[in-house]
Amino acid sequence: MLEAIKYNNRKLEVLDQLKLPHSCTYQGVTNVTQTWEVIRSMKVRGAPAIANVAVLGVAVELNEKDFNSKEQLYEVVKEQLEYLQTSRPTAINLRNAANRIISLLSVQLQDNKLSVNDMKERIIKEAEDIFRECKMKNLAIGEHGASHIINHLSTGSQATILTHCNTGSLATAGYGTALGVIRSLHLRGMLAHVYCTETRPYNQGARLTAFELMHDKIPSTLICDSMVAALMKSKEVSAVVVGADRVVANGDTANKIGTYQIAVCAKYHKIPFYVALPVSTVDLSLRDGGAIPIEERPSVEMTYIQGVPLAPTDMNCWNPAFDVTPAELITGGIITERGVFKVQELEKKISTDKEDGIWY
Ligand SMILES: CSC[C@@H](O)[C@@H](O)C(=O)COP(=O)(O)O
How far is CA 272 from the centre of its chain? Predict the structure, then answer.
């Protein structure tokens, strides 16, 4: 499995996903400014991967710095985490990871037994834990999702899944969320086929998901986004499984642009629609999806593909990177590392597990 993030001996490298599938080039990241740039430019993308790179970027810079006092360390790290949150506004995982670190910093600031160096080491370890835990959570999401889908298949059949965008090892610390469910189905011999959408305008499906599926030899077919309704009408699709960038209290879900129209088509064709995510993608501070900030990307990302113009280059474009799928269209359920549940149960299920308001 190709890794989006390599972190060894406190050195961080990210795979430049803008160059995939043609070349696999890793870029070293040594400070928070570079971290912001690799996230903003989408060299690293996908909600969990963004959060992982952000906290590891803080860790590698921290490792090289000395601080006069614990108060100074607290202020610097807090400011860096706030700055990193300006890189991409829709995915919530980065804010939740930042809150986990800031809350730990606050506790340590009050602990007189800890030196400034102890505090620095503890923060670096916390960032490393966030990264390490991400893959374990993905494996659990995969297992819960696969079991649930298998239990709902008719006897003797295998699942055919439609997915959108890239939610695999390239979007996480490894394995993947929606793609993790697909991987688990495949490993259990219960996957008939996967259809992945191209995912215009940035083609995460064609460039990244297709690449991961082929690499793992998972039986799969690429379709254009405009073929979804026709696919549902003419082929057997057991379920749609997608990822998420932010799920709010009523279950409304922000994910890659195009997710909403797939959910509308799925409802019409009575195909269960699932969203797979770690709990760190939940934002219970917002009641409904109307309040989720939707990032708009530059026109050039629509008018050009890898430097080649596709449209009149000075054409006006509307380029929202995400849309919001209303909870009522998430008919299959929410797949998390803690199990699968109905979207209406989200708030109750998650808030009973809440630890000090930190969702990571
Ligand atoms: C496990 S990744 C879930 C989502 O982050 C994914 O579906 C998505 O929308 C990614 O968008 P991107 O703009 O590529 O960062």
Answer: 21
How remote is the CA of residue 245 from the centroid of ligand 1, in Å?
6
pLDDT at 248: 97
Only one residue has tokens 């008719």, namely 154
Which phi-psi region, left, alpha or beta, contains residue 199 (left: φ > 0; alpha: ψ -120 to 50)? left
Tens of pLDDT, residues 204-228: 999 999 999 999 999 999 999 999 9
Q: Which of 41, 209, 256, 324 most suits a substitution to test ligand 1, by most atoms within 8 Å of the C-beta?
A: 256
- What's the 246 CA to ligand 1 centre distance in angstroms? 10
Residues 6+ apart with CB under 8 A from 332: 239, 240, 241, 272, 273, 274
Q: Which residue ranges have their beta carbon within 6 Å of ligand 1?
A: 45-48, 91, 165, 167, 171-172, 177, 204, 243-245, 255-256, 321
Residues noted as catalytic: 245
Is the whole-model pTM more than 0.90?
Answer: yes
Tokens of 198: 């191209």
Distance 75 CA to ligand 1 centre (A): 30
Nearest to 245 by CA among 32, 91, 31, 37: 91
CA distance 31 to 118: 21
The Å distance, Cα 4 to ligand 1 centre, comes to 13
- Per-residue pLDDT of 226-284, as tens digits, reads 999 999 999 999 999 999 999 999 999 999 999 999 999 999 999 999 999 999 999 99
- Report the atom number in ligand 1 closest to the C-alpha of 177: 1
- For the question of an ipTM over 0.95, the answer is yes
Q: Which domains does the chain have, with CATH numbers?
A: 5-135 (1.20.120.420), 140-353 (3.40.50.10470)
Measured distance CA(38)–CA(43) in Å, rounded:
5
Q: How far apart are CA 75 and CA 83, in angstroms?
A: 12
